[in-house]
Amino acid sequence: MEKELTRNGEAIIRRSDEEIHEEAQANMWKFVFGFTEMAVIKCAIELGIADFLEKNQHQHVTLNQLSTSLACCSSSLYRILRFLINRGIFKETSTKYGEIGYVQTPLSRLLVKEGRNSMAAFLLFESSPVMLAPWHNLSACISSKDNNTPPFDAAHKRDIWKYAEVDSEHNNLLNSAMACDARITVSAIVNDYPKIFDGVKTIVDVGGGNGTTLRSLVEAFPWINGINFDLPHVVSVAPHANGMEQLLDHWWRLSLGLMELILISLMLSLLLLMLMVLYMLVVTCLTMFPKLMLLSSCGFCMIGEMKNAYKS
Ligand SMILES: C[S@@+](CC[C@H](N)C(=O)[O-])C[C@H]1O[C@@H](n2cnc3c(N)ncnc32)[C@H](O)[C@@H]1O
Q1: pLDDT at 66
Q2: Distance from the CA of 246 to the center of ligand 1, in angstroms?
Q3: DSSP string spanning 8-38?
Q4: From atom 27 of ligand 1, which residue's Cα is the shortest distance away?
Q5: Is the Cα torsion angle 205, 206, 211, 213 positive or negative in sign?
Q6: Distances 95 to 60, 90, 118 between C-alpha atoms, Å
Q7: Strand pairing of 100-103 and 244-248?
Q8: Which among 71, 115, 278, 297 counts the fewest CB atoms within 10 Å?
């Protein structure tokens, strides 16, 4: 590195080609291992590190306690913690006797699974093999002439909503991720702009996922009647809440209506056909066998007379 002075005395730092090359290499290593941050955070969520530290926040949690409670190999867990601490997720503390322990940080609190502002579900969703597959197809999609097909559809042969219909595990991941996003955004709207809901009687959330948005709104403004509208595989697993109705996707409802209509018209046609056949039978009998009809009516008369005679 060389320092040069300009005419007015300002310092200019000139870097050698070798230094520029070394910096490029260092950056490239960061890109090569860029995926590790997502992978290690996913690992921490799955192990439940943040959940354990949150539950035991008033205690000094040592590596030994953590690895025993989470049933982990302590040396591997230590390496994971060191990686995360370096990125501001979890913090190392020590007691006055020099014993090392671990505590939460604002970042690691976002990884508590049931936390109000948790982003754990979003990370688990985005880091799932299903969501990563389209990224592996990106260059194929861009070089393809038909680049109207989104990478997700190209990787999974159907769009993201239809895919969720056939993969219930992914459906749960997707709905939970959307819900965690909704919790964050809706609470900001409820806290900062409550006035916009004055006088609102009904809200229909079209594509409202598992209804988290509406649930938060109906809880905050109980006079609102919420109607959550989404696809059948989303609505069927959505939790119920007071003041809220869950509606299936429109075309599905329409097709149910059509089916009912077709069934009713089929039954009516069948009834009409049976009535016509009966009428034709009666007419044929009357015209072809008048004597038979006469005989049978005489028979009925005779039976009637015999009954009367017996009674008297
Ligand atoms: C990006 S998510 C948004 C979820 C929710 N609004 C939220 O913010 O958390 C889009 C939603 O639209 C739903 N969706 C997609 N196609 C739909 C359709 N044809 N009819 C109804 N809902 C649909 C999906 O199932 C999904 O829940």
Answers
A1: 97
A2: 13
A3: TS-EEEEPPHHHHHHHHHHHHHHHHTTHHHH
A4: 209
A5: negative
A6: 8, 16, 29
A7: unpaired
A8: 71
3-state SS, residue 305 = helix
- The burial of 80, by beta-carbon neighbours within 10 Å (0-12 exposed, 13-18 middle, 19 or more buried), is given as middle
> Token pair 């329409």 is at which residue?
254
The whole-number pLDDT of residue 287 equals: 79
Look up residue 121 and give its two tokens: 């579900």
Token pair for 156:
């999974």
CA 108 / ligand 1 centre spacing (Å):
29
Residue 66 CB–ligand 1 contact under 6 Å: no
How many CB atoms sit inside 10 A of residue 109's CB? 18
How far apart (Å, rounded) are the C-alpha atoms in residues 5 and 131?
53
What is the arithmetic mean of pLDDT over 65-94? 97
Q: How many angstroms separate the first and last alpha carbons of the chain?
A: 138
Testing ligand 1's pocket by substitution, the residue of 175, 231, 233 carrying the most ligand atoms inside 8 A of its CB is 231
Q: What is the CA radius of gyration of the chain?
A: 37
The share of the chain scoring above pLDDT 90, in percent, equals: 64
Q: Which residue has the CA at smallest separation from atom 21 of ligand 1? A: 230
Which ranges of the chain would DSSP assign to H, the alpha helix? 17-32, 35-47, 49-55, 63-69, 74-86, 106-109, 120-126, 129-136, 138-143, 151-156, 160-166, 168-192, 212-220, 232-235, 250-288, 290-311
Q: What is the pTM of this model?
A: 0.75
DSSP state of 224: P
Nearest atom in ligand 1 to the alpha carbon of residue 178 is: 9
Q: Whose CA is nearest to atom 20 of ligand 1?
A: 249
Is the shortest distance between the CB of 231 and ligand 1 below 6 Å? yes
Atom nearest to 209 CA in ligand 1: 27
Stretch 20-30: mean pLDDT: 96
Ligand 1 in contact with 230 (CB < 6 A)? yes
178 lines ligand 1 (CB under 6 A): yes
Asked whether the CA dihedral 112, 118, 121, 123 is positive or negative, the reply is negative
